[in-house]
């Protein structure tokens, strides 16, 4: 097992009817910017619960943060922060709203010329404006980590940012909110969380026995509850396990002491930037091809995953590893998630070359756990996913 440090300061408030507790978490003298997305929170009762909890503090609202948090929209929100002298941010939404709020947390105190530099220059935020979250869509784990991904439509870019100053001070997780989520978004959330675990697990054996078991237990839980959540999003037992699995998949715990991959995400972000494909679905497109292309490097963990998660007991290591990839792809299909780029766009010619060029231009010359996935190899993986 590798050396590691682990610190996660986010307070989790989990369970039924917990939104009211935000009144105990936000300073009474704060001026709060309430951030949300397309307005669904006003239809499902979450907005009213939040407003009631915020009755004793001054609140300014900013809605309309899109599914891929857009830089131009966030710059409008940043102007509100400056003009209104906001001191505290509250994200009410899924990963996109929370990621956008993290960008604003960093940008509000950023002393550079343009906040986009935070992303292009990979500036780690040591101190941001304080913020909390009310999670409405389990998927990204952004409610308990310090990372974010921001999109810029004008340049067709989707880039990551983060830093120790970007952990939420608190996050409210009430699984009852899942009852109003459309099936497409539930499938996306399940796929996103599942792939988050794979990115931190599907590398090579390093003797981190407990970390492997943590990861495998999250995968097993997602597989178990997925059909129940899709069938009945009011099933509290299933949805509570779904929500907590999404959080645990990317709160830093399972990545400690082990190598990480994250090439699937790096490539998937480009597909979202180029075609607007849902983030989770880009991961399902790239992951199977990625594992097949890097089979020799990953087959030991693939076989272990096949044995422990999918109960594959027959055949050689290679046989089990290939079967595990097939099981993973079948799981995505059962959720209604297509796994080929051509399922989402017919305008895919040249996509592999374009992504490889972008990685070269950014100096991303070695992705993956071994840092050996050069842009020409990325090109081959994307072509395999056509």
TrEMBL record:
Q: Which UniProt keywords apply?
A: Oxidoreductase
Identify the Pfam families for this entry: ADH_Fe_C (PF25137), Fe-ADH (PF00465)
What name has this protein been given in UniProt?
Answer: Iron-containing alcohol dehydrogenase
Is the Transcription regulation keyword given for this protein?
Answer: no
UniProt organism field = Algibacter miyuki
InterPro entries recorded: ADH_Fe/GldA, ADH_Fe_C, ADH_Fe_CS, BDH-like
Q: Specify the superkingdom.
A: Bacteria
Matching PROSITE patterns, A to Z? ADH_IRON_1, ADH_IRON_2
Domain named Fe-containing alcohol dehydrogenase-like C-terminal is located at 189-386
Q: Alcohol dehydrogenase iron-type/glycerol dehydrogenase GldA domain spans which residues? A: 9-175
